[in-house]
Specification:
The protein is an alpha/beta fold. Helix 4 (135-145) crosses helix 5 (162-168). It starts with a strand and ends with a helix. The chain has 7 helices and 6 strands, in the order ββαααβαβαβαβα. The protein folds into 2 domains: 2-27 and 100-207, Ribosomal Protein L4, Chain: A; 45-95, no CATH class. A hairpin with a 5-residue loop joins strand 1 (2-6) and strand 2.
Length: 208
């Protein structure tokens, strides 16, 4: 698959061949859904916790005698029907982690990239460089490249892209991500994927 290569001003300067094994792969919607649900589930902390009647303080003594009061029999003031008592059928700490084989996860990423490529939502630029880490410079570049759409910016490495990272931090509709940290949630969350030519090699090494 051939795609235009643009510069930071949005002008077409050349063409590049995207590997068909990644950007024109079979599309498995069910795999993409499973990978997305797994990632969202694995992000949950699961630290919610409530106390049962055995964990709340007090209530060791029977509140009143069993018979003769005319009231319902009670064994503890910390039973669930009492104010300040324990809780029943409420959340407790648990692990939400879901597993998914690596081959399936990578197939889901290839499917998502193929959807993006088929909808012309992948933008390749010749070189992602800024003269200085200024937000206004990155905003101008994104306006030329993606217009009013949200953008996921993939970079091949962190060391040579410090200016880009700092300039994008304050832009709410854009995110910078290392190409080898590519994930299904970010691919589906953003409208456009912007990457320099060098990031294609990283993605190919990761998913090829």
């Amino acid at each position: 698959m051939k795609i235009d290569v643009k510069n930071m001003k949005g002008e077409v300067v050349s063409e590049v061949e995207l590997p068909d094994s990644i950007f024109a792969a079979p599309i498995y919607v069910d795999l993409m859904h499973q990978a997305y649900v797994r990632q969202m589930a694995n992000a949950r902390l699961g630290t919610h916790e409530t106390k049962t009647r055995h964990q709340v303080a007090g209530g060791g003594r029977k509140p009143y005698k069993q018979k003769g009061t005319g009231r319902a029999r009670q064994g503890s003031i910390r039973a669930v029907q009492w104010k300040g008592g324990g809780r029943v059928h409420t959340p407790h700490m648990r692990d939400y982690t879901q597993d998914m084989p690596k081959k399936m996860r990578r197939a889901a990423l290839r499917s998502a990239l193929s959807v993006k490529a088929g909808d012309s939502e992948i933008i390749v630029i010749d070189d992602l460089k800024l003269d200085e880490p200024k937000t206004r410079l990155m905003v101008a570049a994104l306006n030329a490249l993606v217009g009013e759409n949200t953008a996921l910016i993939l970079i091949p490495d962190k060391e040579s892209n410090e200016e880009v990272i700092r300039a994008t931090n304050n832009i709410p509709y854009a995110k910078v991500l290392l190409a080898n940290y590519l994930n299904i949630r970010d691919l589906l969350r953003f409208d456009k994927v912007v990457m320099p030519v060098a990031a294609i090699e990283t993605i190919n090494a990761y998913l090829g």
